[in-house]
Specification:
About 35% of the residues lie in helices and about 25% in strands. It has about 300 residues and is α+β, with helices and mostly antiparallel strands.
Length: about 300
C-alpha cells in the first residue's frame, strides 16, 4: 500500500497510543519509552507520524533533518525503514539519517552489512544499564561509598526527611524546584541557557499533562522543603525502569544517592533493570554513572545513507 507520510507536532492526547507502539519490539535504550520524546520535543522540533501499529519520529538540528529508528514490530522494520528512506529522498531532498538507532534494529535490518549505509557509534550517548536490585540495596564492597553517603544522610536528617510519591497535585513544588535549579545552573555557567530552559519547560509541560502521560515522580523533602526529585517511566517489555530526570540540591551530601535508591524502592519494585540514560560526553556525569557499577550499556548508532 502506498502511504503518504504526514507529520505533526506531538500532542499529549496521543501519548498512550505512542507508549503502546514504542513497546512493540525489544529496545533497551531510554528511547523505548516516550518521556524523552515529550520533554525534548522543542529542542529537536519533533514531529510524529502515527499508524495503528507504527510510529515515525522526525526531528531537526543544525545539521538538518534526522529520524528515530521506526517504532513498530520487528518484522515490520524493513517496511517502515523503507518509507522513511523514501520520505527523506522525495520530500526532504536529502539522504536518510537516523540518530540513536538501537542495536536490535540494526541487526534486524542487516544494516551492518549494507553498503548503502554508514554506521557510526554515538559513544557519548550510550545508556547506562544497572541491576535494579543492586541499586535498591547497594550491596557489597563496590557500593560501600554509596551506602556510607546514604547512611550519613539518614543519620544527619533523621526525623527531618521524608520520601513522597508525588502526583499532579504536587506540580507547584516541582515547578518551583526546576526554576530554582535552572537559576543555580546558569549562575555556575556550566550549561547552555537554551538547553536548560527547554528542559525546564519540557518537564513542566509533562507535569501539567500528567493526566495524559504515564510516568512516576518521587521526591525527597527535608523540613517539608523539596530538595530532590526523580521522574521515570517503565518499559514493561524489558521490565526496565527508565530514569529521565533526576535533580537534587548538590549542597546536601547524599541527596542524590538517597533519591536514586528511594525512587526505585517506592516506584519500581518490579523492575529488574534500570536505564539511567547517557552521560552526554560530560566527564563528571560519566564518572557519576560509572560509580554505580553498570551491568551493561544500551549502545546507540547514527545511520547515514550514502
Amino acid at each position: 500500500m502506498d502511504r503518504k507520510l504526514v507529520f505533526h507536532k506531538p500532542i499529549f492526547e496521543e501519548s498512550a497510543e505512542l507508549s503502546r507502539i514504542y513497546a512493540l519490539r525489544d529496545n533497551k535504550t531510554c528511547d523505548s519509552t516516550i518521556l524523552d520524546t515529550y520533554i525534548w520535543k522543542d529542542l529537536y522540533n519533533t514531529e510524529v507520524y502515527i499508524e495503528e501499529e507504527a510510529a515515525l519520529i522526525l526531528m531537526k538540528d543544525d545539521k538538518g533533518y534526522f529520524a528515530a529508528m521506526p517504532y513498530c514490530r520487528q518484522e515490520d522494520l524493513p517496511l517502515y525503514f523503507g518509507l522513511l528512506r523514501r520520505y527523506f529522498r522525495e520530500e526532504l531532498g536529502q539522504p536518510l539519517r537516523i540518530d540513536l538507532a538501537d542495536e536490535e534494529a540494526l541487526k534486524a535490518l542487516k544494516l551492518y552489512n549494507n553498503t548503502d549505509f554508514i554506521i557510526e557509534e554515538e559513544s557519548d550517548l550510550k545508556d547506562y544499564l544497572y541491576d535494579a536490585q543492586e541499586l535498591r540495596t547497594l550491596p557489597g564492597k563496590k557500593f560501600q561509598k554509596k551506602r556510607n553517603l546514604v547512611n550519613k544522610f539518614m543519620k544527619e536528617y533523621e526525623g527531618r526527611w521524608e520520601y513522597k510519591t508525588l502526583c499532579c497535585m504536587d506540580e507547584y513544588f516541582l515547578e518551583k524546584f526546576m526554576e530554582k535549579w535552572v537559576e543555580i545552573r546558569l549562575s555556575e555557567g556550566v550549561d547552555s541557557k537554551d538547553t536548560l530552559i527547554i528542559e525546564k519547560d519540557g518537564v513542566i509541560d509533562i507535569l501539567r499533562n500528567c493526566d495524559k502521560v504515564t510516568f512516576r515522580v518521587g521526591g525527597i523533602f527535608i523540613d517539608e522543603e523539596l530538595e530532590a526529585f526523580s521522574i521515570g517511566s517503565y518499559n514493561s517489555r524489558e521490565k526496565m525502569a527508565v530514569i529521565s530526570i533526576e535533580k537534587g540540591n548538590s549542597e546536601i551530601p547524599g541527596i542524590y544517592q538517597v533519591i536514586n535508591q528511594q525512587f526505585l524502592i517506592n516506584s519500581y519494585e518490579d523492575a529488574i533493570m534500570v536505564n539511567r540514560e547517557d552521560d552526554m560526553g560530560i566527564e563528571g556525569l560519566r564518572h557519576a554513572k560509572e560509580s554505580y557499577n553498570p551491568v551493561g550499556y544500551a549502545r546507540k548508532y547514527r545511520v547515514y545513507e550514502k
